[in-house]
Amino acid sequence: MKHYIALFMVICLFNTVKGQEVIKLYKGIIPGSKPAPSDYKEESPLGEDKITRTSKVSEPTMIVYQPEKGKATGAAVIICPGGGYGILAIDHEGFNIAKRFNEYGVTAFVLKYRLPSDAIMVDKSFGPLMDAEQAMYLVRKDAAKWGVDPKKIGIMGFSAGGHLASTLTVHYNDVKIENKEKISLRPDFSILAYPVITFGKYTHGGSMANLIGPNPTDAQKEYFSNEKHVTADTPPTFLVHANDDGAVPVQNSMDFNAALVEHKVKGEMHIYQAGGHGFGLNNKTTTDDWFERLHNWMKSNKFL
Q1: Which residue of 50, 131, 166, 287 is 20 to 30 Å from 81, comparing CA positions?
Q2: Cα 31 to chain centroid, rounded
Q3: Which is nearest to 132 in space by CA: 77, 209, 73, 199?
Q4: Could you tell me which residues are beta bridge partners of residue 89?
């Protein structure tokens, strides 16, 4: 019976991405990788909450969602699902978001990035960032193929995926991939939903431990405390969070926004009085649609 349940889950996930192009991030051997152990197999079980949680990713990919013909605006977003750097909420904070972007004419790339693991990486702390950089490299390099404006490519992330997105947002010049053409890895805009930002006082302990281990150095915590690395050249950023988030304190978004203000970077932040953590597209505590607020922000900044 367990075999049939597992098969059913795989079929469900396949049907979710059926018809979407899947792009491998790297050709040949993945830089900084180690051969995966025989028991290191990707898994995507469907939980009782109807959320698919993908783990043990060793082959990073992008799943492409393109808007209907004639509807495309030229804007594109690379989406980083969350999951504490332990799993990826691949549909809840990936595929569902991509479909919503398509409604607004935005081409979406759901990033199935490698989750930090000593079993498959030489330095697990930089594996996810490498994948985010490679995704930006490929989307910008092949922008014409997708009908995308290379000056309108953003990064988006949820929870720990928000940490990954914000890491690229502030560390885009720290190039860790092969980039012979010297293509800019700077996102044109950043969208952070209930993001882990800091590895300081208000961090999410599980995300920090999964990325840099249980005994990180001060230098590691400093590097990945992204509020400390905002500059005047940081991309415009949209943030959304809930005051009652018990997993990732709202101070993460507030501190990042304060850094944007300090450096005179365009930013917009929406803080809801309730909603908890991980609400995805639908904060059930309010009739307000934060994604519509995002849509308005993108239009006002001429990304759409």
Answers
A1: 287
A2: 20
A3: 77
A4: 53
Q: Based on the number of CB atoms within 10 Å of its own CB, is 20 exposed (0-12), middle (13-18) or buried (19 or more)?
A: middle
- Counted residue by residue, the chain has a size of 304
Residues of the chain with pLDDT under 70: 1-19
84-134 residue pLDDT tens: 999 999 999 999 999 999 999 999 999 999 999 999 999 999 999 999 999
pLDDT tens-place string over residues 38-59? 999 999 999 999 999 999 999 9
Distance CA 46, CA 91 (A): 10
Gap between the Cα atoms of 66 and 243, Å rounded: 34
* Residues 190, 205: Cα–Cα separation, whole Å: 23
For 257-303, give the DSSP string: HHHHHHTT--EEEEEES---S--TT--TT-S--HHHHHHHHHHHTT-
Q: 232: buried, middle or exposed (CB in 10 Å: 19+, 13-18, 0-12)? A: exposed
Strand 76-80, strand 153-158: pairing:
parallel
Angle at CA 226, nearest 5°, toward 225 and 229?
110
Q: How many Cβ atoms are within 10 Å of 221's Cβ, its own excluded?
A: 16
Residue 292's alpha-carbon distances to 49, 52, 223, 245, in angstroms, are: 25, 25, 33, 21
pLDDT tens-digit profile of 67-85? 998 999 999 999 999 999 9
Give dist(CA 236, CA 1) in Å, integer: 50
Distance CA 11, CA 20 (A): 15
**Is 0.90 topped by the overall pTM?**
yes
**Which residues have C-beta within 8 Å of that of residue 250, sequence separation ≥ 6?**
241, 242, 243, 271
